[in-house]
Amino acid sequence: MKFISWNIDSLNAALTGDSVRAVLTQNVLNTIIQHNPEVIALQETKLPCDGPTKKHLGILRDKFPDYEIAWNSSVEPARKGYAGTMFLYKNCLSPSVTYPVIGAPGTMDDEGRIITLEFEHFYLTQVYTPNAGDNLNRLEDRQIWDIKYAEYLADLDKEKPVIATGDFNVAHKEIDLAHPDSNRRSAGFTDEERQGFTNLLAKGFTDTFRYINGDVTGVYTWWAQRARTSKINNSGWRIDYWLVSDRIAEKVIKSEMIDSGSRQDHAPILLEIDL
Fold this sequence. Notes:
CATH topology: Deoxyribonuclease I, Chain A
Mean pLDDT: 97
Low-confidence stretches: none
Structural class: alpha+beta
CATH architecture: 4-Layer Sandwich
Helix content: 25-40%
Largest sheet: 6 strands, mixed
Strand content: 25-35%
Distance between the termini: 7 Å
Radius of gyration: 17 Å
Order of helices and strands: EHHEHEEEEEHEHEHEEEEEE
Strand order of the largest sheet: 3-4-2-1-15-13
């Protein structure tokens, strides 16, 4: 089976925008379509609280005629048009869809950050992990989130193998970003966030990219938009992951990034696994 995950940074722009950046986003979306995956996971959809509009749904059905759609949007008291996730899965599949609440602090559980698909023999779940913030103002809450989320995945893993993907908003090791020394206390590379990810893996999960590719360097999934030359210079971070339960790691065939051209921000990531 082939799965693709992508932090799209506004589904509305990807479907209806006409700016230069929107066109770049649409090109990446078309590349994903060409891969013909069984499931597509999208993060940071930024949709209204009631989900895609009628116009959005029409475009999605035109672009993805063979897929069903499930979404989770930010709802009050959380910010409107914030965060959000979406699954598109082939209509030959029939998973049960849930929208977990993990007991996270503040409004994090209301921000549409997790969707889980339950299949007969495995779970496929996606996450848009909260960012610790520019001034690390949300770091304490983020640490609680990491604990709660790890517990949630571990509970799923007790029932059947888990495949987890998304924007985890952390570069786990120094080789996962271009400039570790100058980012020691940057959101996404604090000791606390890195330890949270280590603790998650220790509960029985494998980082499939490292499993397949070893300690290769210079391969990233995100380049800051604020730095105009970040992608040209490959000053990136690897913060998007495909994780699997340790007991099915040997079934992974491929775990890699999909070329997103000149578009900065996130690149899609692909997992191919023999299930």
